[in-house]
Amino acid sequence: MNDLIKVGILGASGYTGADLVRLLLEHPSVEISMLSAERSAGKMIGEVFPHLIGYDLPELVSAHSVDWSKSSLDVVFCALPHATSQEIIGKIMACENPPKIIDLSADFRLRDVGTYAKWYGGEHQAVELQKQAVYGLSEIYRDEIETADLVACPGCYPTAALLALIPILQTGLISPENIIIDAKSGVSGAGRSLKEQNLFVEVSEAMHPYGLGHHRHMPEIEQELSVAAESDVTISFTPHLVPMNRGELETIYVRLNECEIEDIKNCWQQRYGSDPFIQILDGFTAPATRMVRGSNRAVMNIFKDRRAGHAIIVVAIDNLVKGSSGQAIQNMNIMLGLEEDLGLTQVAMFP
After folding, report:
1. Does residue 196 surpass a pLDDT of 90?
2. Considering its fold, how many domains does the chain have in total?
3. d(CA 322, CA 288)
4. Are 337 and 310 in contact (CB under 8 A)?
5. CA distances from 256 to 25, 121, 265, 267, 300 (A)
6. Judgement on whether residues 190 and 300 belong to the same structural domain of the protein
7. Is residue 350 part of a domain?
8. pLDDT for 208-265, tens place per residue?
9. Is-catalytic flag, 153?
10. Of 80, 175, 201, 211, which has the fewest Cβ atoms less than 10 A away?
11. Composition of the chain by helix, strand, coil, percent to 5
12. Residue 103 belongs to a domain with what CATH number?
């Protein structure tokens, strides 16, 4: 493409929206042409996020004020809450020559609309669009993403778990039974809305589990693991909130199918050896959130469990980048035939 790609971001006043802006400002092929934020409409984004003061960005508008039939956008990133996304995406996709849509909500992740209704408390309002949505786990569904018009980006917890587990389930190296995922995320994963449990005093110097036994990312993880295993997979999954701004670490316990640790690592290498954002660590180096903070990388390793025939997998990502905005931009690059790492080569920030 010779001309710049005109991009719109719905929900630019959230943490995910802000990271989309931060990353896209450095993308050489993109022009940010529209930013929406309902409660902040009429403001400049620098008034909402001071770190974005001074950049040439459009004024925030209400998404409902946009005439999508006259929009010249090439790509729209939708960083709105679930249920809200399906309504507005339906309107955009109904227009003649609609832009490519990359949705960061949960609205199009689950293939079964009954499962969506069960876990999200309401009937799906865009069933036909849901059928054509492609699950946007970049390294796994790259071929499907290339030709998609609507991509549903995975949640942050599913991203880390699925990148590690799908290849070794597909090859039968681990059992699909008794998979345990112990996950921890920074507070930004809970969103920017005012909630008592997210106040500084509540989260500082503390760690707590939430969504015990019923977190909404569970059916998403099970959906994709079941596809990989070609059988129904039920997991044990517990997320925790930890007192840091961003970052995510998952410790995953699996049972091996008569294989060794090196077989797992060889499988990962064969699957991800040419992928720019997957790093398989050597030896006994344990992944840590400091390795990925601010970057689009996922780092992983596997270790022997003292229980014979079992192993421990550890994965780290930045929940706002590889777990959300960075993966969304990676998907945009794939959809538009650009270099996959364009605008996403930031080195992790440390300290």
Report:
1. no
2. 2
3. 14
4. no
5. 44, 37, 13, 13, 17
6. yes
7. no
8. 999 999 999 999 999 999 999 999 999 999 999 999 999 999 999 999 999 999 999 9
9. no
10. 201
11. 35, 20, 45
12. 3.40.50.720
Q: Containing domain of residue 58, as a range?
A: 5-132
Q: Do residues 96 and 194 share a domain?
A: no
Domain assignment present for residue 330? The answer is: no
Nearest to 243 by CA among 211, 202, 215: 202
Backbone angles phi, psi at 284, to 5 degrees: -105, 20
Cα distance between residue 316 and residue 245, in whole Å: 15
CA distances from 179 to 9, 211, 281, 288 (A): 36, 18, 22, 21
pTM, to two decimals: 0.95
Using CA atoms, how far apart are residues 49 and 138, in angstroms rounded to an integer? 28
> Is the distance from CB of 55 to CB of 80 less than 8 angstroms?
no
The answer as to whether 57 is a domain residue is yes
Q: Are residues 92 and 161 in the same domain?
A: no
Q: How many C-beta atoms surround the C-beta of residue 283 within 10 A?
A: 7
Residue 242, judged by CB atoms within 10 A of its CB (0-12, 13-18, 19+), counts as middle
CA atoms 321, 324, 325, 326: torsion sign: positive
Which class for 190: exposed (0-12), middle (13-18), buried (19 or more C-beta within 10 A)? middle
Catalytic residue among 153, 156, 259, 267: 156
195 lies in the same domain as 253: yes
> How confident is the model at residue 193, as a pLDDT?
64
Q: What is the CATH number of the domain that holds 163?
A: 3.30.360.10
Handedness of CA 49, 50, 55, 60 (dihedral sign): positive
Q: Are both 165 and 123 inside the same structural domain?
A: no
Q: Both tokens of residue 99?
A: 């832009």
Cα within 13 Å of Cα(40), Cβ side = 18
pLDDT of 1 > 60? The answer is no
Q: Where are the beta strands (DSSP E) in the chain?
A: 5-10, 30-36, 60-61, 75-78, 100-103, 134-135, 150-152, 180-185, 208-209, 236-241, 248-255, 278-280, 298-304, 310-317
